[in-house]
Design brief:
A alpha+beta (447); B alpha/beta (374); C mainly alpha (371); A: alpha+beta; 14 helices; C: 371 residues; mainly alpha; Hydantoin permease; two-stranded antiparallel sheet; 74% helix; globular; Spore_Ger (chain A); Spore germination protein (chain A)
Chain lengths: 447, 374, 371
């Protein structure tokens, strides 16, 4: 590659940018050509590590050796790489007709965030940062195994984001890893900006209610999943990682389970599953009992329900949907609103609306209790993605119950289980009970 | 994966028409139902319509806190059969009559004397919506009176009468409670007789009295058990856990509070179709009231008195029952449970043997204290 | 043995409480039901042992696979179709019974087609799942429903209203000669093991099957049969027990939960038994579907590139069940189940002869290979 041609090629490539800076320095028989994009690099570093030494070094030879010794130093393998790396914040150096890249990237996003989605009482309160290098640093500092492997793939035709595939070579299931690599190659999207976006593109079935990858912002969960043989995906500029293959029970554990004593965490687990069942089934049970089989509940309860429905103009099915609709609106609204306002919004919505609705007898008292119980118990589900899925499935169950009655609800629930069991997450059955003793050789195998 | 998508498509194709076609046709909200709380069945005056049914219906109120007074409505009608009467009753109410919450079936005393129990039972058992765990009782003077009465201090949504039978409210020793399924099995079985509590309302009073019971065989005349006999049957049947018994002997007159009752009974077969009814009762408790001062050291002596007294009373009450051939306890079944089916006496032979049975009662007293004072 | 193996057997046993088995037994309550039960347990346990031993010898192989290797086409194709029909009927009986129960006790106003559709639709797509997934579903649903069913049994045993004298009276009829019909009903309880015809595909490793495992099955069977037969007698009396159409429903309605949100045990029983019925139909129809798939090569039937073969039996199943649900009455259902059970008593022991034949052929084939 002749020097002139290359420089011309570089000019060609960056002719649309007005931010490319070319610095030609000559002093004392030394000659150095720099290309960089001003907004991407750390000026201080450039000055300290390149410009100052240039004037201090006695010979071009020494300078060349010095640059080679820098940790930011990078060899060039292809022209395309040059373009890409310069766009990412590297500085191209031409010295003695040789081309090198120096990484003086300036990143303002490498600070570690506070946990905001999966908050816990015990344990670390730090989450990942927006910077990929920092995140890998966090993982490496927490997971000291030489078998930990990081692979990079560039995704997104336009924004060219770096995606890291992280796994423990000794523990990972190779077929899972292969499928993920293969699927990632196939993704052709213009813009990739988040890990959860990948979630949608890698899956077999684009229309699915349940998440097949678990998204998390907590380093401890990622470490836990790495040790469990899972594959972790990171996208640069995104503080959330996804781990896969994920099974249903992954979504029902929080890291805090490990930080409590056994009895406490057992209690919390029971509470959580109770919450899950409650939030799934309660509204549908209400519809089934009030509209199809009022003799199920004991007399006092049935009378209370019947009494509270006096004067309500809708049938139970509409009543439930009506109240749930407002609850969902309230939840969505409180996410979008600025933090200062959202507390007021929930108060106005929850308290005032709830009271007013029963006063105007648009819904029964019992209904308001049910809706709030459902809302609360939905929050108990530790991973947010699962909570969203449950919210959708709940509606389906209400629909089934209002057509087929309580028996329909029971069967609908079993069909839900069957659907989950039948689902795959990268070759793993999504829901199944695992044997109690893991050491024992299993006496059966997958068909 | 075309296969999977195909499945979803097919599913939707099937589901959507179903939902659109079927929904809405049997959707009925709870406030369009009216719950029946009690059924009263009486003999009516009319010749061709022998049954008179009275239903007690709950009137739902928006909040029980705001209106703690119970509210009911009543409908009643006579008919040739029970079903016919109920069919007419359904036109009396703007809402659907829902029998799923019926907890008490009161049968008028007059009707029972007509020997109509089998017909009643057939109706009650055949309807799937009537609970088999509803209680059956006899109403005196009539079922309608009982059903229509609301005693003072009754809670809304839970009629006071239920408290007598559910074993959670009052736990009186004189109350027999008979579930519908128990009524049915006693009815169908020849070797055990039906026993039903009698609910009485005295004319000028405003409360119920449940302390007697009625025994009747499948075809015979009903026989009324007085309060004390009811208690004894209750104790043998283990229906009660606490009881008050008195001892009046050898100048002593004291009451005992029994807090644990264990009873065993069995039929001993002697020669020539002669049987002996063996009853063993453990009564543990303490002395709760006495006319005379008591000496704790004499507890064995008091126990002895208690034992004699108990035995005499039991034997007396039982003899009365056995002599008339009534068997509410189920000695007949006990006998059947002890002999091979091909070596049993016939039902008639058994009846004869039962009437002439020897009665052996052993009371094992366990008075542990003379109470808090001597 | 793998726990999944026990599930197959257990479900068939427990599911029969709501099917016609107790009703058939009570029909003969004075003519040798008790002795039939004893004979049934002995014969059934032997059958379970033979079947399990046989399939254990060929881990991972289904009956169709074995038949294909050892017998000729004219034999195994009609034979498998016959088996498919039998399994379909077994599932259908549970389906129709439960449809009748639901319409009677839960939603009397609902049209019968709609109720049966609830059951059929929920099961039918499950039948198309892979065999291992069927078993995982079975495990999950069992885990959710079985504790409560055990609780109901506990409630029944500890109830004061359970009169043991009736039970003793019934037990004393043990010296009667057993009757074919009641024996057939008891024998049917053990036929869960026959699901191995297809489910053996899942058990790809050789399993231990010793006296311990046999006795576990024997004990479970004895407990189930005892509960099935004697508990309703204890609650409903002995004389007229044969008059009850659904003895176990009446029994569960005789139980009361004083302090629970639901007072009538009947509903808890119905809704949780719905789970067991669901599993029972799922397993039977899955087996039936797999037989049909094998015989008619359903995977190869394509329409515009989609594999539609699987959906042919699905639609046939739906059509036949809907037709029969509307057509049958309780008495006919009772007759059909009784006849089916009697047929099974003959067919399944005869199948052992076939097993010997297959075993010989397989051995020959193996020896030929070695030479």
């Amino acid at each position: 590659m002749s020097s002139k041609d290359s420089i011309k090629w570089i000019y060609d490539q960056f002719k649309d940018t007005n931010e490319l800076i070319e610095k030609n320095m000559e002093y004392d028989n030394k000659h150095l050509l720099l290309f960089y994009i001003k907004s991407l690099i750390d000026m201080d570093m450039l000055e300290k590590f390149v410009i100052k030494p240039f004037f201090e070094m006695s010979s071009e030879e020494q300078l060349n050796l010095y640059l080679h010794a820098l940790p930011q130093f990078q060899e060039i393998t292809s022209k395309e790489q040059v373009q890409l790396e310069v766009m990412k914040g590297n500085t191209l150096i031409v010295i003695q007709n040789e081309y090198y890249l120096l990484d003086f990237r300036l990143s303002k996003n490498d600070e570690v965030n506070q946990t905001s989605i999966e908050t816990t009482i015990h344990g670390s309160q730090l989450a990942f940062s927006d910077n990929l290098a920092t995140n890998i640093n966090i993982i490496r500092t927490n997971y000291h195994q030489p078998s930990l492997t990081v692979e990079y793939i560039v995704e997104g035709e336009v924004n060219q984001h770096k995606v890291a595939i992280i796994y423990d070579k000794d523990k990972v299931k190779t077929n899972v890893l292969d499928t993920i690599r293969e699927k990632l190659q196939k993704v052709d999207k213009q813009l990739i900006s988040s890990t959860t976006q990948l979630n949608n593109y890698i899956n077999d079935k684009p229309i699915t209610i349940f998440p097949q990858m678990i998204m998390t912002e907590r380093p401890d969960r990622i470490i836990y999943n790495l040790a469990g043989g899972k594959v972790i995906l990171f996208v640069d500029g995104n503080p959330q990682a996804v781990a896969t293959p994920a099974v249903f029970f992954d979504f029902m554990t929080t890291m805090e389970d490990n930080y409590h004593t056994f009895v406490i965490s057992l209690f919390l687990r029971i509470l959580r599953y109770a919450g899950l069942f409650l939030s799934l089934l309660l509204p549908a049970v209400y519809v089934g009992v009030t509209s199809f089989t009022p003799e199920v509940f004991r007399t006092e309860l049935a009378l209370t329900v019947a009494g509270s429905r006096v004067g309500v103009p809708f049938s139970s099915f509409i009543e439930v949907l009506f109240m749930l609709f407002f609850m969902e609106l309230l939840l969505e609204a409180s996410i979008r609103l600025p933090k200062a306002v959202s507390a007021t919004a929930t108060t106005v919505g929850g308290l005032i609306l709830g009271t007013a609705v029963t006063e105007a007898s648009l819904a029964s008292n019992i209904m308001v209790i049910i809706v709030s119980a459902v809302a609360i118990s939905t929050f108990v589900i530790p991973v947010n993605e699962m909570a969203f899925s449950i919210r959708v499935v709940r509606l389906l169950l209400i629909l089934i119950t209002s057509v087929f009655g309580l028996a329909g609800l029971v069967l609908g629930f079993f069909v839900l289980l069957m659907y989950l069991v039948n689902m795959d997450s990268f070759g793993e059955p999504y829901l199944r009970i695992y044997a109690f003793s893991k050491n024992k050789k299993s006496s059966e195998e997958k068909t | 994966m075309p296969k999977k998508q195909n499945k979803t498509k097919l599913f939707l194709l099937v589901l959507i028409p179903i939902i659109t076609l079927l929904s809405g046709c049997e959707f009925k909200d709870i406030d369009k139902d009216v719950f029946v709380s009690m059924i009263g069945i009486d003999k009516s005056e009319e010749e061709d319509k022998p049954y008179k049914i009275t239903l007690k219906l709950y009137v739902p109120t928006a909040s029980f806190k705001q209106s703690p007074e119970p509210e009911y409505s009543y409908i009643s009608h006579s008919g040739e059969t029970l079903t016919e009467a109920i069919r007419i009753l359904e036109t009396y109410s703007d809402k659907e009559l829902e029998f799923g919450h019926t907890k008490l079936i009161v049968i008028g005393e007059e009707l029972l004397k007509e020997n109509k129990a089998m017909e009643l039972l057939d109706f009650l058992m055949r309807r799937p919506d009537i609970q088999l765990i509803s209680w059956v009782a006899v109403g005196r003077p009539s079922a309608e009176k009982i059903v229509k009465m609301i005693p003072k201090g009754e809670n809304a949504a839970y009629p006071a009468l239920f408290n007598y039978f559910d074993g959670i409210g009052t736990e009186s020793q004189y109350i027999v409670s008979t579930y519908l399924f128990d009524f049915a099995r006693r009815m169908k079985e020849s070797s055990i007789d039906i026993i039903l509590p009698i609910i009485e309302v005295k004319k000028e009073e405003s409360h119920f009295e449940v302390n007697k019971s009625l025994i009747f065989t499948n075809d015979g005349e009903p026989h009324e058990l007085d309060t004390y006999a009811t208690l004894l049957v209750n104790m043998i049947l283990k229906n009660v856990e606490v009881a008050d018994l008195f001892v009046k002997k050898e100048g002593h007159y004291f009451f005992t509070k029994i807090d644990s009752i264990k009873s065993k009974y069995k039929v001993k077969i002697l020669d020539n179709n002669q049987v002996e009814l063996d009853i063993k009762i453990h009564l543990n408790g303490f002395i709760s009231e006495s006319k005379k001062a008591l000496d704790p050291e004499e507890l064995t002596y008091y126990n002895q008195l208690f034992k004699q007294e108990g035995k005499e009373n039991f034997v007396e009450a039982l003899t009365e029952l056995v002599k008339n051939g009534y068997d509410p306890i189920g000695f007949g079944i006990d006998y059947k449970a002890r002999t091979w089916h091909n070596k049993r006496m016939t039902d008639e032979e058994w009846e004869e043997a039962y009437k002439n049975a020897k009665i052996e009662v052993e009371v094992i007293p366990g008075l542990k204290s003379t109470g808090a004072i001597q | 043995m793998s726990r999944y193996y026990y599930y197959l057997i257990l479900i068939n046993m427990v599911a029969n409480i709501i099917a016609s088995v107790p009703a058939i037994l009570f029909q003969y309550h004075k003519d040798g039901a008790v002795s039939s039960m004893i004979f049934g347990i002995v014969a059934g346990t032997i059958l379970v042992t033979v079947y399990t031993r046989f399939f254990n010898a060929f881990p991972g192989m289904t009956l169709p696979d074995l038949l294909k290797k050892t017998t000729s086409k004219w034999f195994y194709k009609p034979f498998l179709v016959l088996l498919a029909v039998m399994w379909f009927l077994a599932g259908l009986i549970t389906l129709v019974t439960f449809t009748f129960l639901l319409i009677r006790y839960v939603t009397p106003e609902m049209p019968i087609t709609q109720i049966s559709l609830t059951l059929i639709l929920s099961v039918i797509f499950g039948c198309l799942m892979r065999t291992d997934r069927v078993l995982y579903t079975v495990e999950l649903v069992l885990l959710l429903t079985f504790p409560l069913i055990l609780f109901i049994f506990y409630k029944a045993y500890s109830s004061k209203s359970l009169n043991w004298d009736f039970v003793k009276e019934a037990a004393l009829y043990v010296n009667q000669m057993p009757h074919v019909n009641s024996f057939g009903a008891c024998f049917f309880l053990f036929l869960g093991v026959a699901n191995l015809f297809i489910f053996n595909r899942f058990f790809t490793q050789k399993q231990k099957f010793k006296l311990k495992h046999i006795s576990i099955i024997g004990i479970i069977a004895t407990l189930t049969l005892f509960t099935t037969y004697f508990i309703p007698i204890g609650f409903n009396g002995f004389e007229s027990i044969d008059k009850l159409v659904y003895p176990w429903i009446s029994t569960s309605d005789s139980l009361r939960m004083e302090f629970f949100m639901i007072e009538r045990v009947l509903f808890v029983f119905l809704f949780f038994y719905l789970g067991i019925a669901f599993l029972s139909i799922l397993i039977h129809w899955h087996v039936s579907m797999e037989f049909l798939r094998f015989v008619f090569n359903l995977d190869n039937i394509k329409f515009k590139g989609f594999k539609v073969g699987k959906f042919i039996p699905v639609s046939i199943f739906i059509a036949i069940s809907l037709f029969l649900v509307r057509r049958l009455n309780e008495y006919q259902l009772f007759q059909i189940s009784s006849t089916l059970y009697n047929g099974l008593v003959i067919i399944f022991p005869l199948m052992i002869i076939l097993f010997f034949f297959i075993k010989r052929r397989m051995k020959d084939a193996e020896e030929a290979k070695q030479n």
